[in-house]
Amino acid sequence: MVPTPLALLLALGAAATALAEPLRFVDCGSVDGSIQEVNVSPCPTQPCLLHKGTSYSINVTFASKIESQGSKARVYGEMLHVDIPFPIPEPDGCKSGIQCPIQKGHSYSYLNKLPVKSEYPSIKLIVKWELVDDQDQMLFCWKIPVQITS
């Protein structure tokens, strides 16, 4: 059976919609903020397949419950319940789409990159991403399963 052009168009539309879907994530202790949405692009399915030598866009929409002069991101690869620090190019949240000072009750779009280095091992793990305020309290913390692949 040969697919019709309309069937192909519908399939492509469904695939494009799947790419834009927010991720299912686990909130791991957002105290001073509430996460509204987490997007990792490209990551059409979970666990996210992270290809070595590629950089992924991170977009987190959250609402702040506090005032803060600044914010700092910390990223970890979690394996066997051990957090291994994962360097990111820009840990300063005020240089990552957030207009500082952060105001109570306002929503923010945090934007960053997750570079996957070629020398990383091919493994399954949990990415844990935290953003802390200037009192070192969690504005947000989320986890997603990933698989690093060649």
Automatic annotation (TrEMBL):
Keyword line: Disulfide bond, Secreted, Signal
Entry GO CC: extracellular region
Signal sequence, start to end: 1-20
Cited Gene3D superfamilies: 2.60.40.770
GO terms, biological process: cholesterol efflux; intracellular cholesterol transport
Compartments, as annotated in UniProt: Secreted
MD-2-related lipid-recognition domain span: 25-146
Predominant cellular place of this UniProt entry's protein: secreted
Domain of life from the UniProt record: Eukaryota
Recorded GO MF terms: cholesterol binding
InterPro entries per UniProt: Ig_E-set, ML_dom, ML_Npc2-like, NPC2-like
Family that this chain belongs to: Belongs to the NPC2 family.
Protein name: NPC intracellular cholesterol transporter 2
Source species: Notiomystis cincta
